[in-house]
Amino acid sequence: MPEITYREALNQALSEEISRDPNVVLMGEEVAQFKGSYKVSEGLLEKFGPDKIIDTPISEAAFSGLAVGAAMMGMRPVVEFMFWSFCYVAFDQIFNNAASIRYMSGGLINVPIVFRGPANGGTNVGATHSHTPENFAANTPGLKVICPSTPADAKGMMKAAIRDNDPVCVMENTILYNLKGEVPEEEDFIIPLGKARTVCQGNDLSIIAHGRSVMVALQVAETLQEKHGVSVEVLDLRSIRPLDLDAILDTVRKTNRVLLVEENKPFCGVDSQIAYLIQEHAFDHLDAPVKRVSAIDVPQAYSKALENFQIPNHDRVLAKAMELL
Amino acid sequence: MEGIYHDADLKDSPVSEKKTVVDSPDIAQTSDFSNLPINLQLDSEEKIRLYSQMVRIRRFEERSLRAYQQGHIGGFLHLYIGQEAVAVGSVSVMSEDDHVITAYRDHGHALAVGMDMDECMAELFGKRTGCSKGKGGSMHFFAPDKNFWGGHGIVGGQTPLGLGIAYALKHRKKKGACMCFMGDGATNQGPFYESLNLASLWGLPVVYIIENNGYSMGTAESRHSAGEPLARRGEAFDINWSVHQGHDLYEVRDAINNALVLAKESSSPSVLEIVTYRYRGHSVADPDQTYRSKEEIEEYKQNKDPINLFRDKLISEGVLSDEKANLLDQAAKDEAEASAEFAIASPFPEVSELMDDVYWETDNPDQKVSSGEMFFESSR
Fold first, then answer.
1. CATH topology of domain A197-324
2. CATH class of residue range B15-286+304-347
3. ipTM score
4. pLDDT value of residue B2
């Protein structure tokens, strides 16, 4: 199986789906001539032309809403946000229109649209460019939300998102764009939404994470094994809504101790809901309270010295894991 | 509470007793649009149908107001009374290729595109026989089978959606255009300008129709907007713009038709400002006398009522008689009453239907491809 980057995996997914379905277009700031701010769409303009790969002005509200209107008419637009942080100026179009039109029309109108882009901290770009709004999106019935963490997931889940008949928010990660991994080449390589992945098996502690936090969880699992002989199971949620509750409960019932790790800020973050679900459905299987490591609860800091501590890092996750053992 | 209101007593006096139009300088300035080609092609039957549509909208809304006062309708009820010629005139020149989207004051557009009173009234009552199964309410009527894409609650939020409908038409090389209605208040929302820029930049067949009823909720145009007329704002984007009187159905038809032709023949957007007036508050629950006078409202009812003006025109053209007009009015009242009875008799949605219509996928379990929990109420 060829090894490619997360960025190339997304590019393949977009390319294959644009080839496959004439209703699919990619639009956003700098996606065409500039080849994408993070080069995710490199080569697509040359391949598909300006009718399919569409540069927009810096007008998130207009092009997000335009894409929702086009989706209502049966197109399948993929909207790139240079950063998910920029979706905040298009909030109404995503959180009212894309999310609710199907419901408000009594199911008469579908909105098959993908909003995608990076949503992460850790790159020293300050508070306005480091938001992780997967909790906002998951809090909005009508939207689906996924956070692929590997190149294979990036491709298989992006393809699933584009083929999905509901609005899907794909939260990527700029730090993962260069991550390499094996990715199947088959045209119909699809990873269904709502299916978590057990990254490594273990018996003593479960670390449940999504997005780049999965990488941190894996590093901590290795440290715990090597230095403390602790066997850690790491579960990658992959998809926030739909959520693989069965997989969450399975690992909790197996290890009886659970640590949740995410880049969200803690208050009303995704993991508050996960923790709630665990105590509701697996209370008797817990040998310790559920613990969390989230981003430190302040606006994202600019300075590397501060931000590297702010987002979940190896040492903070390890320290919290030790509290559970 | 019950049955006290009729927003405007539609005239039942002979045409000879009407006030002379020179009482109102605005009306004196208007020219006669009845001889324009788009209006000359109307036969008597079509003219009567247009008149009847306006009357039906008025009577439907008056009946809905009574139902609101009786407690049958919750939330907001934004009435269109006074503005009927805009929706009816605009929709009357659209072809089957054209599309309509509007804001929350949407009852008039819904009935004009051919939605029936029953499904609209039932929606207001929150009944499962409503056009959105009771899940949308007054502000969120939809009829995609009639090219009517809502019904949108956030001021200006529909302006990018209308752009997207036009974009989809152009991308797919279809020949239609999208009429995107909005109020004067929506012209001060940012997404409108982003949309104008894209409409012009990409040459999209969208017609933005500003129904300027003079008030952004309770704030008069002079207090909410710098520069006039509002449509001139299109000029900054090299978009054709013009201002028209909304009480004359013939004028509305001509203006909208020209814009639709431009949209379809040269894929160019337009901004049309149609000056109109609403007799009721922003929503019926809102106070109406804090920001405008009774006299002002009365002036419009007397001199610029679009239904009375069109009725007088048709009588002077020999197309309509007092008797016929009264019959149409009675028929509209009866239809509205029947729709209220239909709504009352209809069942509310079952609680078991609450979670339907959120996701296509959960509504189509046989074609479901994802797994996992989609909903998070504590039912597991």
1. Rossmann fold (3.40.50)
2. alpha beta
3. 0.96
4. 37
